[in-house]
Amino acid sequence: MTAVPPSFSDPVRAGPPPLRTGSGTEAPEAAGSPVPPRPTAEGEPLRRSGCRPRRRAPGTDPRAEPSDTLRFLRSWRAAPLQVAAIAPSGPALAALITSEIGTRHAPVLELGPGTGVFTRALIARGLAPEDLALVELDDTFAGLLRTRFPEAQILQMSAARLRGLSLFDGRKAGAAVSGLGLLSMSPRTVMAILSGTFAHLRPGAAFYQFTYGPRCPVPRPVLDRLGLEARRIGGTLRNLPPASVYRIARRPSAPQGPFAQHGH
Ligand SMILES: C[S@@+](CC[C@H](N)C(=O)[O-])C[C@H]1O[C@@H](n2cnc3c(N)ncnc32)[C@H](O)[C@@H]1O
Q1: CA–CA separation, 250 vs 166, rounded Å?
Q2: Model confidence over 180-230: pLDDT tens digits?
Q3: With contact defined as beta carbons under 8 Å apart, do 83 and 76 qualify?
Q4: Cα 215 vs. chain centroid, distance in angstroms?
Q5: For the domain that residue 186 is a member of, what is the CATH number?
């Protein structure tokens, strides 16, 4: 599982940081209405250079969706090991974990999408929402994903139960992206998640997993048992906490046996 480091959880105990809504609470000048400079006691206008907020590109304003952070905090408080993070991943990690995926990989499977940060990055890379299957255990997140990505296939269930499901009318996926907190799961559950997911992946397809830890979050015996290999494709310090991404794929010599679909 991707553990929440103690320093990361402390602010939560102290209560969530104040969130700015950006909806009518700014000073008038921040909202765009010019306000005459206030005179000083000496009669000189007080210049407040540097007070005007910098303009950001659309979609990059961290105040734009404060409710996602609140949603994460609430879900984390209710099930900390399951949610495994107190805030959604940032855009740098979303860009890294999807960096090797393009339209040729459609359809794509996503595990533990939360509020949909990686989903958005996949769509930004050209994937059509209808070519995405999103597997999310938390009912609040699953409901949010249905609203945000109505054309995607949303499965509210554990990713450990993927084996035997029919996902894309029998088509196999070209990649899987996982935001699951594998470090808090038992090796048995991790095994079920990986073997079930690879049963839905075509030959040569990879499973992308992030972690806040120093090594691949899939235990070595699980990789060996399933004939998989893991390679770190990069890391980013521009995420809280900093994170790495691993590409997990079948070893060239591995038989397809462990991943054969059962039940249909
Ligand atoms: C660390 S959060 C990552 C969320 C999102 N991908 C992100 O990076 O912001 C882990 C997510 O996995 C979900 N989750 C945990 N266990 C799961 C399971 N067994 N099957 C499917 N989703 C699960 C949680 O509800 C949560 O949304």
Answers
A1: 21
A2: 999 999 999 999 999 999 999 999 999 999 999 999 999 999 999 999 999
A3: yes
A4: 19
A5: 3.40.50.150
Which tens digits make up the pLDDT trace of 252-264? 976 555 565 443 3
Ligand 1 pocket member 4 (CB < 6 A): no
Three-class DSSP category at 34: coil
The C-alpha atoms of residue 200 and residue 202 are separated, in whole angstroms, by: 7
pTM here?
0.76
Higher per-residue confidence, 158 vs 76: 158
| CA of residue 61 to ligand 1 center, whole Å | 24
- Number of helices (H), then strands (E), in the chain: 8, 7
| Tokens encoding 37 | 């400079």
CA of 85 to the centre of ligand 1 (A): 9
The pairing of beta strand 153-156 with beta strand 228-236: unpaired
The pair of three-digit structure tokens given for residue 26, joined into one six-digit string: 């700014």
Which residue range(s) make up the domain with 188?
Answer: 89-257
Q: Is 262 contained in some domain?
A: no
What letter represents residue 201's amino acid?
A: L
Q: 6 lies in a domain?
A: no
236 C-beta closer than 6 A to ligand 1? no
Q: Could you give the CA distance from residue 89 to residue 65 in angstroms, rounded to a whole number? A: 13
Kind and range of the H or E run holding 235: strand 228-236
Structural domain count, the chain: 1
pLDDT digits (tens, 9 = 90+) for 141-151: 999 999 999 99
Within a domain: 35:
no
